[in-house]
Amino acid sequence: MGKEFILTIDDKGRITIPKEVRELIKSKKLKLRVEDSKIILEPIVVDVDKYYGIFRKDLEDVDIDNLLKEAITEVF
Q1: pTM, to two decimals
Q2: 31 lies in a domain?
Q3: Which residue, of 5, 25, 66, 75, has the fewest CB within 10 Å?
Q4: Nearest to residue 22, comparing CAs of 1, 46, 47, 5?
């Protein structure tokens, strides 16, 4: 079993994820679900690198790879 952390919910319903945990999950997006009164947080990892360079159209100053990364991130 991994480490355990005690977290406090503030007046606005927020919690702070400890730095040690944030460094382990390496994600800024989390999926939260509730199962049997348990809160489960899972990192969302989008592998945008697998799409790198698949677009061949030149859109002048638009970075299409960055545009794709932003679009995929919005979906999750």
Answers
A1: 0.54
A2: yes
A3: 75
A4: 5
